[in-house]
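OP here, attaching both records as promised.
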Amino acid sequence: MKTQFLLCASFVLAGCASAPATLPAGSTVTLALLETTDLHGNVASYDYYKLAPDASLGLERTATLIRAARAEFPNNVLLDNGDTIQGTALSDYQAVAAPLPCGETLAIYQVFNALGYDGAGVGNHDFNYGLAYLNQVTGSRFDVEGVDPGRPACAGPSFPHVLANVVSVKSGQPLFRPYAIIDKPVTATGPDGKPLQTTVKVGIIGFTPPTILTWDKRHLEGKVRTIGVREAAERYIPEMRAQGADLVVAISHGGLDDSEYAPSLENGSWHLALVPGVDALLIGHSHQVFPNAASTVPQFNLPGVDKAKGTVYGVPTVMASLWGKHLGVIGLRLKRQDGRWLVDKERTTVEVRPIQPAGSAAVAADSAVLPLIAPQHEATIRYVKTPIGDTDFRLSTYFADVGDVSAIQVVNQAQAAYLADYVKANLPHLAGLPVLSMASPFKTGSAGASDFTDVAAGRIALNNAADLYLYPNSLVGVQVDGAVLKGWLEKAAGRFNTIDPARPGEQELVNTGFAGFNFDMPTSAELQYEIDVTQPAGRRIVNLRWRGAPLVPGQQFLVATNNYRAAGGGGFPGLDGSRTVVTAPDNNRDVLIAYIKRQRELRRDVNGNARSWRFARVATVGPVVFHSAPGKTALAREAGLDNVRELRADDGGGKGLALYAIDLGR
């Protein structure tokens, strides 16, 4: 049966499957759609950055939920929503440190094959290692510049990847197949109550954020172009129906955004739900749980969105967070009418199942998973233990949102030193300009108490450098004036909510809808400023001074950053790729590793306490609160933050975080 499915999936665009036998009207079947999304390489329940087991994540535990869901729903389709191949040290090991041979299947795809995935979409981070690597590990034959379409396909997964809105510039054809139609054998129930064996043709179509052209410009420019998700859906869904699809499942690697539609819209899933013919919607990218009746996330409180039932304009919709922490389950109730299957939306169910329910232990790992990748897992651990230096202080992001730069400054120092040396050697006409650097805290607790950078004092190894710099970005230098620099800082200050000093109740300091990796900050004694959180976003940077004097708007600077930010990632004003003066051949993490090796020992007074910014002082009637891991007040004190105190060891949010208060008047 599986061999027959794989053969059919490979040639479905030519319409290989025969039509199922005629079924009597009134026949019913329940078909479960099972979703994983944003796994980011987390196969094992293990944190390679901390070199410790972590039961709160990992596909090996999601696999246990998959097995239970299949027992409950014998008729099921298992699908992944992308951002699959990048995100852990295991991912980097196979892509960069010990490049995967063509004949070997990527570790996470080995597990997918064993679990019997039926199909997958493609996320934005799947492009991070370049088109040649993506072509290799997916077993594809891309017809794009830089990839030889005549070479035999490498080992890949045994299921189809679908992506409808990315097109090769060279061929004008979709990079992947835009859709596939899976012939799924099911047991239905006839109107007489007796079981019937039949086949449901499940069409799957994939979408990725069109903004990949900005985020991975160095890999994609001139090689691929994107189509708006709505345009792609409107083009291919009728074709899928004509090919015999009974159902159309959109695998959309994007969240919900009701902004005026544009083909470049990052999170287009809200608009996809309005395209005729979509029966179910699997979404991702935003790392959230949907449905969730208690969610306060803005994207789940939009017109047409039922965050309790799990629908978007009536279309059953699920988002299974990230890292294998949840499994999305849509129980489609189908009824045979007029010779086709119709979704009974009133009886269809949507839920997200956690591997670690609140207040409970995590489910056991599926014992069959880790042995599949044991050699790669163990090799990665050996690799990341390679020592590169020492530190006399702890580098962490537990309090990066309120001023601790212990995990930020060394990144900035490494980037600035690299850019200054590069300019001196290659661009002497720019060598007289001051050099700054911008870095951000990549891990700020969005996934729970373990989701923080934390490098202990003592030996620094490669895994610690990967913890300090999470993504495989490349270093870029941009030339900006003082006005653009101020706009950059203003945009970064969007990390905070607007605080009302006269409000008596608790006020949340951090805007969780603004990603921590967009909270860019310099760490230079020469550049000083304050963030006034009582002011609206865009008017918060005050007392901005360069070398003790007010910053002059026309003052020119070179700023070290990464390719994502320099090309427009995050929507920072003035940063659109046009100000790039250096596109380095090295990635940011390698630059950091080389810097630590040269320094040999990091010291707090040199590498961990140079704050450029502080909050403007303001007395508030009620407490201003934020969330971090419990029991870390001593770390705040070590960073000089004596205005922080822990209010409650459990903030009640179910992620293991504590509630802290900050006194903005001190």
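Record two, same layout:
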Amino acid sequence: MAKPPKLPQGMPTPAQVLDFIQSSDIPAGKREIAKAFGLKGQEKIKLKALLKDMAEEGLIDGSKSAFHRMGGVPKVTTLKIVDLDEGDLVAEPDNWDPEAPGKPPRLIIREPKMRGAKRPPALKRGDRVLARTEETERGWIAHVMKKLPARTEGLMGIVEIDKTGKAWLAPVDKRVRQSAPIADRGSAEAGQLVIAERVGRSERAGVKVVEVVGDPLAPRSFSLIAIAKHGIPHIFPEEVLEEAPRAAKLKLSEKAREDLRHLPIVAIDPADARDHDDAIWAEPDGQGGFNALVAIADVSFYVRPGSALDREARKRGNSVYFPDRVVPMLPEVLSADVCSLKEGEDRAAMACHLHINADGKVSSFRFTRATVRIAHNIAYEDAQKAVDEGNPPEFLANLWAAWKALAAARHARDPLELELPERRVVLDEQGRIASIAIRERLDAHRVVEDFMIAANVAAAKALEAKTAPVVYRIHEPPNREKLIALRDYLATLGKKLALGQVVTPGLFNRMLKDIADEAEKALVMEAVLRSQTQAYYGPANAGHFGLSLGSYAHFTSPIRRYSDLLVHRALVDAYKLEQPAPPGSIPATSGLSDRDRASLQQVSDAISQTERRAMEAERDTIDRYVAAWLSSRVGEVFDTRITGVQSFGFFATIVGLGGDGLVPISTLGGEYFRYDEAAKALVGSDSGTVYATGDRLKLRLGEANALTGSLKFVLPDADAGAIEPRGSRPEDRRRGAGGPPKKAGKFIVGKRGRPGNIRHQGRKK
């Protein structure tokens, strides 16, 4: 390796400093510059002044730790993610001087390739990362080293004006404890929901309002909070809105499509479904098995690679569902109309033909592009009622019979069976909460679910048979660290988990099946859930542990998931299902583009991130609705179950309703509670009282904050006043502020000098 050329020793010129910064293999700070030019003593002081002058002239940035030529990017630097562009996360230098000439450089983020439990949380707009940068022919690339604590995280809140006229930002993020002073509120008024950012490095420097969202308690506002907080794109660009109607008018080819309009295909969906991706049909084959069809909206016919629609869909990654609205992946003319499988309407579909044998196994499959006409759109509850009444129409009777065969094969496969309750928020016409309840799990749900799983497996295997690209849905087995933690926890319950055996979903199922006590089963189920890795998308198959499947790809929801759209395109290419080229400016082909093929790992990572972003936003919104629903019931005692235990307290959820709330350890009385990490329990030092995950107990609701979605519980006989109010303002440390001085015993807190009750030894009596 060649040695770098020796630099002239002595005080450098500005040009020499710039050349050194540009060529340095490491971030060049004052120390590195001084060492390179052999500066000592007074010369270092002169260098400091020189660098300050260069920064003021805009030649270099003003960082004290690592300078760079203004307009360039350091090799290692802090970046802030500002956008998601066509599946790529885009970042800008976090410390860029807004007064510097030109716009800040934009860098494409590349995250480390990790799988399963090792995958870091999804990055989103506003996150800060430490990254290694490189300049390529396509522009700047940033390789993430680690995610940094966010200086602006949680800076969404309500503007409050105190009695002195000072403005404060009251948080709507349950993780933020105190209000922040507002240095610049712009046009925001008291009581409005706003987005803000720090104006300095110190928290005491305050924040400035950058966007006014509106009335925080208006109907349907909670989803707007989540949309703004998580940076979810919700406004379609003009070019997308202009292209969507043209794409929707594409005519279906009679010659290049299979005509399936004669089949009584049925779409079974939630009663409040906004779009209908899938429909199913089955009939006996006369030999104990079934011929079946899963018809999926042919979104790839309308949303083509290279189109504005495709760029926006790739950017969004998926639709996001809130109780009051949907943020769709595609414009409404497609998502809720032309692509949606509506009763009595001719629709373009990707048809998965299945043969299910008498054992419930899919013995063969084939894929075609078809024209379908849905015979019925039925709600889950209505389909279930028709079957339960004992005389269902033939098409439903056939579906249930085919499902029983599929269910038998599923039982033999022994996938992971965790009964996880799902909350459902029902709103009235004014957007107010009508009810909140745990969503009932019906056989009708299982019927559709097993047909979809069969089609998803068929799609993965069909592409593998042609060695075509596949975007797999991957769920890896629990890693050893999580299994060890699970083993240690189960040991506290008197149960064993041998790590020498092959870990399968059936192992967990048998463990749960052997537990008769419902409270104990809830304990173990929570622990098993915590041990699982998070599912993700990727082009390299690693199987689906939870479903006990070797190959699995999402194929059945292309209206709302970009992953499914990519699988459809791959099937178009692999099985020569291309349609005649449309007229006009709509792209000619509907299969995978060269860009799709070249960036499959990259786009898989991006849609995994947007999926996690959507999950967080949906969960946050449900939490806010639940808190709003309970805000009028503060003080009531509820039946609860402990869902998690930490050293600072435990979390509990209301049985039959949901909504996790904290019971701070400070409200448990004067007794000292020890945190047993292995048992996930708090243990009283004197009484031996134990609070452990899964325990059922009665708790009183002490706080329900609709803006943050946070709940606080206390023991029924505890003082609710012990709960620290959220959004309290930091104590003003200025001398003389805040009223009379506080006392602790005989001493005045914070007073300078000698305490008043201690006399100077030389003082006369």
